[in-house]
Specification:
Elements: E1 2-7, H1 15-24, E2 29-33, H2 44-49, E3 53-57, E4 65-69, E5 73-78, E6 91-97, E7 103-110, H3 120-140, E8 146-151, H4 175-187, E9 190-191, H5 192-196, E10 222-226, H6 228-231, E11 234-239, E12 255-259
Parallel strand pairs: 1-2, 7-8
Antiparallel strand pairs: 1-12, 2-4, 3-4, 5-6, 6-7, 8-10, 9-10, 11-12
Helix pairs in contact: 3-4
Length: about 260
């Protein structure tokens, strides 16, 4: 089973790249973030024509998350339990049949950016991460194969940034942000990419400005966190860099994990 996450940075603007990715990579499950549209404006017909069931939590102009699945979606949870601040659409969770008589629980997560750090935006990021940690802890008690996939807006380690010093005072790399990331791992979740490689220079985001893509000045902020039951099935992880080189690309690229 191939599970992918992708911040598309406006699903309507990236519809052609999205459909190409579904056709060429054919993930079984795709978690999308930053849809930037309400439910009625989501290209549901195009996704269904490509062979996918859809659940989404939309919002006009900002945020928005979705889960696309080839298999039936048995149930879904809209919104992060225990967190209902300002009505931002940043979390959706679903239970999906795995084709072998079992099921997989998947969440599409779009964590707040938090910049500037000396404003309420960072406090909002901290509160969101606290609620996400509580939900992640509760899900572990179910002892299910679970994948928490999305744009976490956290650079976990210096090796996850081309120039760590340039991010030292950014909300994505502050010690408090990285500590929030470690708390998720310390619960028992596995960073899928780091389970298969220790290499530095593996990025999922390149800014549109200053030739960041051309100079490979990227950061890794898009992650798949696996429960122990999912981590035991992990066989491969791929960052689909070529998605950044196409026409009108998102500033993020998909990350795919394969479970056996």
């Amino acid at each position: 089973m191939r599970i992918a996450t992708w911040n598309v940075n406006s699903v309507r603007q990236r519809l052609a790249p999205l459909l190409a990715f579904l056709r060429e990579t054919s993930p079984d499950i795709l978690c999308l973030q930053e849809l930037k549209c309400e439910e009625g404006a989501f290209p549901r017909m195009e996704a269904e024509d490509a062979g996918y069931n859809v659940v989404l939590h939309g919002q006009k102009t900002f945020n928005g998350v979705a889960i696309l699945s080839k298999s039936p979606i048995d149930e879904s949870t809209v919104g992060l339990p225990g967190f209902d601040h300002e009505g931002q659409s940043r979390y959706i969770e679903a239970v999906i049949s795995d084709g072998d008589g079992g099921a997989l629980r998947v969440a599409s997560v779009y964590c707040p950016n938090g910049n500037p750090p000396d404003t309420p935006k960072y406090a909002y990021k901290v509160r969101f991460m606290e609620a996400l940690t509580a939900r992640a802890r509760a899900l572990l008690k179910l002892e299910e194969a679970t994948v928490l996939a999305g744009d976490y807006n956290i650079i976990p380690e210096p090796r996850d940034a081309h120039d760590p010093a340039a991010w030292a005072s950014d909300a994505l790399f502050l010690p408090q942000s990285r500590a929030a990331w470690r708390r998720l791992l310390n619960l028992g979740y596995t960073d899928a990419l780091r389970a298969v490689t220790d290499d530095a220079g593996l990025y999922t985001f390149w800014d549109y400005q200053a030739g960041a893509w051309q100079k490979n000045k990227g950061i890794r902020i898009d992650h798949l966190l696996l429960s122990p039951q999912a981590a035991d099935r992990l066989s491969r992880v791929e960052i689909v860099k070529e998605a950044r080189a196409g026409d009108k690309p998102s500033d993020h690229v998909p990350v795919c994990a394969e479970l056996v």
